[in-house]
Specification:
This protein is α/β, with parallel strands linked by helices and 326 residues long. The protein has a domain at 2-169 and 200-227 and 293-306: NAD(P)-binding Rossmann-like Domain (Rossmann fold, 3-Layer(aba) Sandwich), CATH 3.40.50. It has 11 helices and 13 strands. It has helices spanning 11-22, 57-63, 81-102, 138-152, 176-184, 202-214, 233-244, 255-272, 280-286, 296-301, 309-323, and strands spanning 2-6, 26-31, 45-49, 68-71, 108-112, 159-163, 166-168, 186-190, 196-197, 199-201, 222-224, 231-232, 249-253. The longest helix has 22 residues, at 81-102. Bound molecules: NADP nicotinamide-adenine-dinucleotide phosphate. Residues 6-7, 9-13, 30, 32, 34-36, 51-53, 72-76, 87, 91, 112, 114, 164, 166-167, 174 line the site of NADP nicotinamide-adenine-dinucleotide phosphate.
Length: 326
């Protein structure tokens, strides 16, 4: 298949590219002049220069006669609210418009959304695809808006949407500090009652994207994808302890302390003109009661993830070690 990937230089997108190549598909990636090409180096991938921002010929060029478009590019951390909307919302629309113009035989447009588009679980009820979205972050609002736009093209384009929770795996730099902390023997958990999250190993999310491109039942549908279990942060710490074969001390962090650290990080990054790794939006998400989701819909439609948390974390640590990061 002729495939076009946005975000192929990023964490999830690069794993998706590897999967597509392993299955023998032709891969074209949208890259920017500033993109770091480290994960695409020496791979049989056609690179097309462009951007998701308006009036960009790169998108149309890259999508020429594509069979599948995987739209993984997005901004996941920014202090500038406008950036989320420009890239995540505007970029999704530009990508869809470019599909209409350049890919008349497109068989699937797979948009990578996020659990953040739906918001945390309410009243102890896990989220499912019927839950009314109630994003608590600007990032989540932008992903929800982008989903709505993607689904609105459904009469003209075959669209599917995948909503992962926190994705972890080798090459990721967002959750990496958590692995580093655990390797050193400590782990930060939210102070007070346990908070719950769901997680997905990156290869499972990439496989879910590919599954959605192939599966008729995925047409016009939104799916949550995760390993299917609910974890407290304490569970995550215990799993890392067993993966690193060491004791990991759990440090309870009060919300106000983390909030202040995030604020300082935002100010520091504003000063050096960098996007912060930790901002106040993350703190809000970290202290939400539960991000539990039901994955029945995607399982019943035929997709089963391969990695539970222990297996995924083992693979992640092995991957980071191979990269020399741990
Ligand atoms: N990581 C998670 O835990 C997680 C969880 C749920 C959903 N998601 C979603 O999964 C997708 C991939 O996330 P990720 O973790 O792989 O993020 P990432 O590593 O930060 O990669 C983001 C990608 O988007 C590209 N991009 C950003 N702005 C762009 C623009 N204006 N034009 C063209 N490309 C642009 C980046 O290209 P450059 O290399 O040029 O910067 C990069 O390839 C996103 O849509 C995100 O919302 C992620």
């Amino acid at each position: 298949m002729k495939t076009f990937v946005t975000g192929g230089t990023g964490f999830l997108g690069s794993h998706l590219v590897d999967l597509l190549l392993a299955e023998g598909h032709e891969v074209t990636c949208l890259v920017r002049p500033t993109s770091n090409l480290q994960w695409l180096k020496n791979k049989p991938v056609r690179l097309v220069q462009g951007d998701l921002l308006p009036n960009n010929a790169g998108l149309r060029e890259g999508l020429k006669n594509a069979d599948w478009c995987f739209h993984s590019a997005g901004v996941i951390s920014s202090t500038n609210p406008q950036t989320y909307f420009q890239v995540n919302v505007g970029g999704t629309r530009h990508c869809l418009d470019a599909c209409l113009k350049s890919a008349p035989k497109l068989q699937r447009f797979v948009m990578v959304s996020s659990i953040a588009a739906c918001g945390p679980a309410v009243n102890g009820q896990s989220l499912n695809e019927q839950t009314a979205p109630h994003p608590i972050s600007i990032y989540g609002q932008s992903k929800l808006e982008a989903e709505k736009i993607a689904i609105s093209y459904n009469t003209r384009l075959p669209v599917s949407v995948i909503r992962p929770p926190a994705i972890y795996g080798p090459r990721d730099t967002m959750i990496f500090p958590v692995f580093k902390m655990a390797q050193r023997g400590f782990f930060v958990v939210p102070f007070g009652r346990p908070r719950y999250i769901t997680m997905a190993y990156v290869e499972d999310v990439a496989a879910a994207c590919l599954w959605a491109a192939k599966e008729k039942k995925a047409l016009g549908q939104i799916f949550f994808v995760a390993d299917g279990d609910l974890y407290s942060w304490q569970d995550v710490a215990d799993t890392l302890a067993s993966v690193f074969y060491r004791k990991v001390a759990k440090i309870s962090m009060p919300k106000t302390v983390m909030w202040s650290v995030a604020l300082l990080e935002e100010l520091r990054c504003k000063w050096i003109r960098k996007e912060p790794r930790l901002h106040r939006g993350h703190v809000k998400q970290f202290f939400a009661s539960s991000w539990g989701i039901q994955t029945d819909k995607i399982r019943q439609a035929g997709f089963t993830p391969k990695f539970n948390l222990e297996a995924g974390m083992q693979a992640t640590v092995a991957g980071y070690r191979q990269l020399g990061w741990l």
